[in-house]
Amino acid sequence: MKGKLAAWGCLAALGLLLARSAEAAQAVRDGLALCAGSVIPALFPFLAVSGLLTALDAGESPALGPLARLLGCSQAGARAFLLGLTGSYPVGARTVAQLYRRGGISRREAGRLLLFSNNCGPAFILGVAGLGCFGSLRAGVLLWGVHILAALVIALALPRRAAEPPERPGSVPARPPLVPALIAAVRDAAGTMVYICGFVVFFLVLLRVLGRVTGLSHPVLSGAVELTQGILALPHTRRGFVWAAGLLGWGGLSVHGQSAAVLSGTDLPMGPYLAAKAAHAAVSVLLAWPVSMCL
After folding, report:
1. Helix or strand or coil: residue 107?
2. What is this structure's pTM?
């Protein structure tokens, strides 16, 4: 029954795309321009560097000890959290997946890290949300602060367990030489960018066509599907600031598709991750309302 419903849904979507082919084609062009102008410049360097750090096991430092104890995870997990905060979606999820595939962290720790380590980064929050939407770097800094604090609230609210070794310690590969590791990191980052841009374009087309047909174009609805479009359509008010915080915490269906793509090949479940992102959005809204008075 579900298969038939899915098939009928795909046929309906195909018919809608054919009926609105001009709008769909323009949305594809806009999505590709968005990827070339914003998504790739913001994400590709972080994807490459985070992959290289993971391959070389860099970042294991006593300086990460306090953060690891605060988060209730290993130093490798603390590194994934920091990379997720600085690199933006889906760098955190990709780093967790890479650590788990390499056997550097256990499945339990990977599943827990996934709930709070895949976050929006400063390049997007300051540039798109702060300057692009509100015309204020101060607004962007406040939004990033709310975003980080909400992620920490989620991490601290999760049950803590005693540190445990990876489940596959014998499978941890030897540290590769720098040059092969760099080549692999750039190659993998390029492949990941294809997935990311594909989801950005797909959901932008979906959002644009459905908006034309249904007339539903509220920024929150748009942002729940594709983050950038929703953020840029928000009003420049305190309410818009609060909505922006919630949307940044949720990430959007496009981001979740990107996260699912980088998690493919692992057995990490998406259900708890989606629930955690919904909680991140709710906590962000609660924190953003009093902070909005500082605008």
Report:
1. helix
2. 0.85
Instruction: Report CA 273 to chain centroid distance, whole Å.
Output: 11
Residue 78, CA distances (Å) to 11, 71, 92, 179 in order: 45, 7, 11, 26
The residues, ordered by sequence, that sit 6+ positions from 140 with a Cβ below 8 Å of its Cβ are 122, 125, 126, 127, 129, 130, 131, 134
CB 161 within 8 Å of CB 291: no
Which whole-number Å values give the CA distances from 213 to 6, 19, 218, 226, 254, in the listed order?
A: 20, 10, 14, 17, 20
Q: How far apart are CA 81 and CA 96, in angstroms?
A: 9
DSSP string, 178-202: HHHHHHHHHHHHHHHHHHHHHHHHH
Residue 85: enclosing H or E segment and its boundaries? helix 75-87
Q: What confidence tens digit (pLDDT) does each residue in 22-45 have?
A: 888 888 899 899 888 878 887 888
How far is residue 227's CA from residue 94's CA, in Å, rounded to a whole number? 19
Of the candidates 148, 155, 146, 74, which has an alpha carbon nearest to the alpha carbon of residue 114?
A: 155
Q: What is the pLDDT of residues 114-144, one digit of tens each?
A: 999 999 988 889 888 898 888 889 999 999 9
d(CA 216, CA 208): 10
C-alpha distance from residue 147 to each of 8, 85, 120, 136, 140 (Å): 39, 9, 8, 17, 10
Token representation of residue 227:
């983050």
